[in-house]
Design brief:
The chain is mainly α. The protein contains 13 helices and five strands. The chain has a three-stranded parallel beta sheet with strand order 1-2-3. α8 links the parallel β4 and β5. The longest helix has 30 residues. The chain is globular, with a radius of gyration of 20 Å. Bound molecules: adenosine-5'-diphosphate and sodium ion (NA). The site of adenosine-5'-diphosphate has 20 residues, from β1 and α1. Catalyzes the attachment of tryptophan to tRNA(Trp).
Length: 332
């Protein structure tokens, strides 16, 4: 009974990388012509759950906006916003803080990973992060959220919050949102460690390909990527035991818009000394035009700010009525 609507967000907290591109940005751009209303968000309120230098944050938010557009998102077709410019996200998050349970948050693996052994010193915001994420999604009554694997648990929590709200207040007001996790690159791994996902927060720059890396840097990082000494197999099953090889093949498939089986068929028996340069050429061919467009847009700050102001106006036409109804239901 809910109209299909898509929401997804990315943190403006450092370098956009190949995992963000393949797991998120590229798919957003591909989906925008399906005629479903879509909202894409720079989640700056999420970024400050850990310390951000204010000037860096402002720059990263604009750079992320440039990244969305350079990846092919059309701000006329989709609604492109910066989270803090749409205050209903934070307002609904407070209500959800009162719906969600402490125990639910404590079970989140991202909380455990990010807070680590020093949880007493983590911010309260980092702990409550999934509640704000639920609000980001549900303030639009979004039905679908395209994300990478890493966000699956947070999406389950979003459904739990919606279900508990609906149950506690005896309404059918918030949808049970579906994660959309598909394609070869739902989990791009670190180039240095096949057991860790590629991430903005990895201290090793060699672990990731940044969307703004130049061609030489991309080639060097791929050349130095950790691999095993065996040539590529002739079937995908054998990749299961070889996480680093699988990662590079997955990246190739996602960049080339090819099934993994096709990549294996084309490159079976090749050594990495041969495969890696092909992958580097492909990555440069796909990423260089995007980096170029990002840098052009970064020179047009007024244009970016205008796009975000317009996006916030369009977003608030959706979020303000939903917040008002929520307040009514709650008795506020
Ligand atoms: P990061 O984890 O690097 O800080 P975000 O949390 O801002 O990135 O995630 C933004 C989007 O990019 C989410 O949809 C997330 O699932 C996706 N994403 C992040 N890292 C990866 C990865 N290594 N592989 C695939 N998708 C990813
Ligand atoms: Na993440």
């Amino acid at each position: 009974t809910f109209t299909p609507r898509v929401f997804s967000g990315i943190q403006p907290s450092g370098n956009l990388h190949l995992g963000n591109y393949l797991g998120a940005l590229k798919r957003f751009a591909a989906a925008q012509n399906e005629g479903i209303e879509s909202i894409y968000c720079m989640v700056d309120l999420h970024a400050i759950t850990v310390w951000q230098d204010p000037a860096d944050l402002r720059r990263a938010t604009r750079e992320l906006c440039a990244g969305f557009i350079a990846s092919g998102l059309d701000p006329e077709k989709s609604i492109l916003i910066n989270q803090s410019q749409v205050p209903e996200h934070a307002q609904l998050a407070w209500i959800f803080n009162c719906v969600a349970r402490m125990g639910w948050m404590q079970r989140m693996t991202q909380w455990k990973d990010k807070a680590g052994k020093n949880a007493q010193n983590a911010s309260l915001g980092l702990f409550a992060y999934p509640s704000l994420m639920a609000a980001d999604i549900l303030i639009y009554h979004a039905t679908h959220v395209p994300v990478g694997e890493d966000q699956k648990q947070h999406l389950e929590l979003t459904r739990d919050i919606a279900a508990k709200f609906n149950h506690d207040y005896g309404v059918d007001f918030f949808p049970l949102t579906e994660p959309v996790i598909e394609g070869a690159a739902t989990r791009v791994m670190s180039l240095r460690d096949g057991s860790k996902k590629m991430s903005k927060s990895d201290p090793s720059d060699a672990s990731r390909i940044n969307m703004t890396d130049d061609a030489d840097t991309i080639a060097k990082k791929i050349r130095k990527a950790k691999t095993d000494p065996e040539p590529l197999p002739d079937n995908t099953d054998e990749l299961d035991e070889r996480p680093e090889a699988r990662n590079l093949v997955n990246i190739y498939a996602a960049l080339a818009d090819m099934p993994v089986e096709q990549v294996i068929a084309d490159h079976a028996g090749q050594n990495f000394a041969t495969f890696k340069p092909s992958l580097a050429d492909l990555a440069v061919a796909k990423l260089a035009p995007i980096a170029e467009e990002m840098s052009r847009l970064m020179g047009e700050q007024d244009e970016i700010d205008r796009i975000l102001t317009r996006g916030a106006e369009r977003a608030r036409a959706i979020t303000a009525p939903i917040l008002r109804q929520t307040y009514d239901i709650v008795g506020l």
